[in-house]
Amino acid sequence: MIIRKYFILSLSVLLLAGCAGNDISDTPDEERLPLRFETTLSNQLPVTRAVDNKIDASDELLCYVRHVINSETSVYTQVQGNLVTIKDNKPTTALYWDDFSNSNSAETDLRTANHGLQSYYGYCYNGATVAKDALKDVSGELTWSASTNQSADGIKTSDLLWSSVQTLVPYDHAKIESIKVPYTHAMSKFTVIVVAGDGFTSTDLDKAKVTLHDMQTKGTFTAPSAEVSATKTDNVTMYGTKRADDANQRAFEVVVLPTSSLAKDKHLATITMAGNTYKVNITDAMLTSWAKGIENAASQSGINYQLTVTLNKQAISVSASLAAWTSVEATAVGEILFDPDVKTIGKNYENVKDGDSFALWMAEADADFGTDAATTVTYNGTRFTNDKPVYWPNGTTQFKFRALAKQTNSHLLEAVTATKVKQDDDSKLPDLLWGTSGDKAIAPRTGDVPLTFSHAMSNVVVKLETSNDDKSKVEIDKATIRITDLKTDGTIAISSGDISIGNTVGEVAVDGETIMVPQTISTDAKLIITLADKKTTYSLKLSTIDNITKWVRGNQYTYTIHLEKEAMKFRAVIEPWVGTTGSGDATLDWED
């Protein structure tokens, strides 16, 4: 891998004019041309150092300065060279132009045409201690490793700077031209900005931990040609910067070797905070935002790959872009959200609309749901959102979910928070819809929890017909129908959706599709029809209809009554309630 561009840190070797003799031993120091070094931050490109954006006074800068001959084809031939150490803007040993020259021969004399001094390569270890044999002086090959647990010092001492081969400066330009040694970041940097969202406090950030997976942590750098060869991968714990007292975000930083894999779907990072664990995989969106900083599906030198991750309890979303070295950033949100995926119920109902809602219960795998709902979930015109946020308390505890609503003339779903089932002021029972996430508890997830709704009540329809014979037919228009001796209350079990029958007995007026409490039909239950004259009444004991002995939840029972003068005939059928399947994971199917 060859990397030649990015942020520049300049090291200038100033060659100041003066008189010099042909023989080093005969030239006093004050008359010889000294090599003076100035370390600065380049103004050409923005530079972000690992720590404080500056070179520390204790930092040692290495520069391999060599006397070379430049051929007509710009091929440099080395005459001699030395590794120079600069500390606090000064070489640790005084150096002069003539230290790189020998006037005994034109081939070794700096003053000869096409001869000059050149920066062959440079390194800055940022305070790291490097083994004596880690650097091969002549070739510029350096063995380097990054810390796998990067504290403030760890990230600084992992951040290697380098400089590749530079243009020759001839001796006769010493008064007006300096030897430039542009330093750049040899490493790749990752910055994860964690934002405490719903369910977290800013102080939760203080104990948060971010780990990057399968990063390159050791390899060989060859500064003259800007080449890197990585030899080891490992997981790396990121350094968390100090959080401001009032800040709800905290930055985590790490530097690793370039060529770290940035392939799609790779498990890039794990974030743990307040008992919750979040997994970040590389997505197409991240790769698109980081495209300028990726080569061969891997990281490059001098690039800062930044992610901004907003954490709500147990959910995460990620986006990406480039930040300050040359930078790359990405973003990540959530709470427990629910997708009932309700589109239509029945052939004649409207789509779900703004304001539709349902009450939601949640409980651990073996726990009871209790009587109080955890939240109300409301459709906002785009999706269902929680009126009161609910969260996964940690990354392992599994939960089951149940929901309750009723269908009304104005709403497909209208939240019901009470488990008691009874008639309203108009003596009508609610069309209850019961929702479930399934029999098994659900492990914490980042996606929505799907809910399936079904009718919890029974539906009764009575159709009247009469003879075509004028002598026997009756006037059935405006006839009224009621059923007596029915149980009209009960309690719905949130866990199962079953309704236990109460003790209230009464009659129910039947008008079109009429909602009933599921029950076994009593021997005293009667279907009574009163014609428009208010005088003629027909009566039928429901228990005499052998094929319908009870009303079951989710079923529609249709009684067709044939009336003639002095006669009454009937037939009855059981049909599944109108069923409509929604789209996606959740459906609305009425059980047979």
Automatic annotation (TrEMBL):
Gene3D superfamilies: 2.60.40.2630. The keyword Glycoprotein does not apply. It comes from the Bacteria. Keywords: Signal. The keyword Signal applies. InterPro entries: Mfa-like_1. Pfam families: Mfa_like_1. Residues 1-22 form the signal peptide. This is Fimbrillin-like. It comes from Xylanibacter ruminicola. The lineage of its organism: Bacteria, Pseudomonadati, Bacteroidota, Bacteroidia, Bacteroidales.
